[in-house]
Design brief:
The chain is of the alpha+beta class and 252 residues long. The protein has 12 helices and 6 strands. Strand 1 and strand 2 (55-62) form a beta hairpin.
Length: 252
């Protein structure tokens, strides 16, 4: 398995899907940064008012790999909001809105993705395409697309062939390809729910922050990553009608 371990989910979606939404690209990019420990989510308990009950707020902070991670343009939409030497927590919902504002439009976001080193040879733009954010696949891009779609199919078949007593194998696959798990075909989401606790234990180890300031470890499964992003952009006029859950990000 080569491409699912090397390419970001956004790169794979832009290359393999005929139609991808603004929301899909932003969501899968953010989730990928969580998986890679470039960003992490913490929970902070606060009382909005002395007479109100304590509420739990989700914040995003720089993760342990933030300083060393070689980010790409489409990832800096989120990462540029953090200072590597003085990371101030950003409310989850606010960071989602920042992602929409900085990426501006789907066309501009896709344009950032196709210019990454991994995809640069995959697309050709003539003069008019550059003006209107259009592009055509090159011969190299067509062949790479075929290879990646085969990897997606094979990995999906591998995961769907596992049963509940083989949870560790599924966890190992997830650890290998990270957030690219969400773009597999033939993926068994029932199995993913069954191993949710196993994965949750791993993410707790990764995302725990003991600051003594009310921050607790953030343990979450697949659904929470996706639902939290959707919740974060609710009420934001920039949020499109992309995938409402993990299953919406499969390759065509």
């Amino acid at each position: 398995m080569k491409y699912l371990t090397e390419l970001t989910p956004a790169e794979i979606l832009v290359l393999t899907k005929e139609s991808v939404t603004h929301k899909e690209l932003l969501k899968i990019t953010f989730i990928d940064l969580l998986f890679k420990q470039v960003l992490k989510i913490i929970e902070v308990e606060r009382k909005p008012h002395v007479r109100q009950d304590t509420r739990v707020y989700e914040y995003v902070v720089a993760g342990p790999n933030f300083k060393s991670y070689p980010s790409k343009n489409h990832e800096r939409i989120f990462l540029s909001s953090f200072d590597p030497y003085d990371s101030v927590p950003i409310l989850f919902r606010n960071l989602v809105k920042i992602g929409y504002q900085k990426s501006r439009t789907l066309e501009e976001l896709k344009n950032d993705v196709i210019k990454t080193p991994a995809l640069r040879k995959c697309f050709h733009q003539n003069f008019f395409q550059k003006m209107f954010y259009g592009y055509s696949l090159t011969e190299y891009g067509t062949e790479l697309k075929r290879k990646i779609k085969k990897e997606i199919q094979d990995a999906g078949n591998q995961l769907s062939g596992l049963n509940s007593i083989e949870n560790q194998k599924a966890v190992e696959l997830i650890q290998l390809i990270g957030a690219n798990i969400f773009i597999l075909v033939n993926i068994d989401y029932g199995l993913l729910h069954q191993i949710d606790m196993d994965l949750g234990l791993e993410t707790t180890k990764i995302n725990t922050l003991n600051s003594g300031s009310g921050c607790s470890g953030y343990s979450s499964g697949f659904d929470h990553f996706s639902v939290s992003f959707d919740s974060g952009c609710s009420g934001d006029s920039g949020c499109g009608s992309g995938c409402s859950g993990c299953g919406g990000c499969g390759g065509d």
